[in-house]
Design a protein that fits this description.
1 helix, 15% helix, 3-stranded antiparallel β-sheet, Outer Surface Protein A, domain 3
C-alpha cells in the first residue's frame, strides 16, 4: 500500500512538473514581442552580415517585421522565413497609402514589384524571377504619363527600349541585342540597323 502511494506521488509530481513547464512556455510566448510566425518590432531584429540572415533573440527570424510612423501608421512590413525575406515586403506613406510592394522567395525578389507616387499614381512595375529582373519593366511620371518601357532578359536590356518626356514626346527609342545598342538614344529608332553605328550598351 505504501509502495502504491509512492508511485502515485511520483506520478502526480511528474504531472505537476509538465503542467508547470507548459505554463512557463505559454507565459513566455504571451510576453514575448514575437509570437511563432507572428509580428515583431523591426528594432528588435539584428542582421548577421556574415550569414546574411536576420536574427531575433539568438535565432533566425520567422514572422513579420513592422515599423511605424510617429503618428502610428504603418511605415513598413517585411515577411521573413528562417532569417531571409520571404513573402510580402510593403512600404507606406505617412498617410497610410501604399508606396511599394514586392514579394520575396527565400531572400530573392520573385514576381511583380510595384511602387506608387504619393498621389496614388503608379510609379514603377517591375518583374523578377529568382532575384533577376526579367521582362517588361515600366515607369511612369507623377502625372500618370509613361516614362520608360525597358525590356530585360536576365537583368540586361534586350529588345526595344523606349522613354518619353513628360509631354509625351519620345526621346529614347532603340533596340538592344546581345549587349549592344542598335540605333541612337534620344532619337527615333532607325530600322536600317546594318547601316547604323553600334554602341556598347551601358550597364
Amino acid at each position: 500500500m505504501q509502495f502504491n502511494k509512492i508511485i502515485l506521488s511520483r506520478s502526480a509530481l511528474l504531472v505537476l512538473i509538465c503542467f508547470g513547464a507548459v505554463m512557463v512556455l505559454m507565459l513566455y510566448w504571451a510576453l514575448s514581442p514575437q509570437m511563432p510566425g507572428g509580428e515583431v518590432d523591426h528594432r528588435l531584429l539584428k542582421l548577421i552580415p556574415e550569414k546574411g540572415l536576420v536574427y531575433y533573440q539568438d535565432r533566425s527570424f520567422d514572422g513579420t517585421s513592422l515599423a511605424y510612423y510617429p503618428n502610428g501608421h504603418a511605415a513598413e512590413s517585411i515577411g521573413y522565413r528562417e532569417g531571409k525575406k520571404h513573402g510580402w515586403h510593403r512600404k507606406y506613406f505617412a498617410d497610410g497609402s501604399i508606396s511599394f510592394e514586392a514579394q520575396y522567395v527565400g531572400g530573392r525578389l520573385h514576381g511583380t514589384a510595384r511602387s506608387w507616387w504619393s498621389n496614388g499614381n503608379l510609379r514603377t512595375e517591375l518583374h523578377y524571377e529568382n532575384g533577376m529582373a526579367n521582362g517588361l519593366q515600366k515607369q511612369w511620371y507623377k502625372n500618370g504619363a509613361k516614362f520608360k518601357y525597358i525590356r530585360l532578359v536576365n537583368g540586361r536590356e534586350e529588345g526595344l527600349q523606349q522613354a518619353w518626356r513628360e509631354n509625351g514626346k519620345i526621346f529614347n527609342n532603340y533596340e538592344a541585342k546581345n549587349g549592344r545598342i542598335f540605333g541612337l538614344k534620344r532619337a527615333n529608332l532607325c530600322y536600317g540597323l546594318e547601316d547604323e553605328n553600334i554602341q556598347l550598351a551601358s550597364d
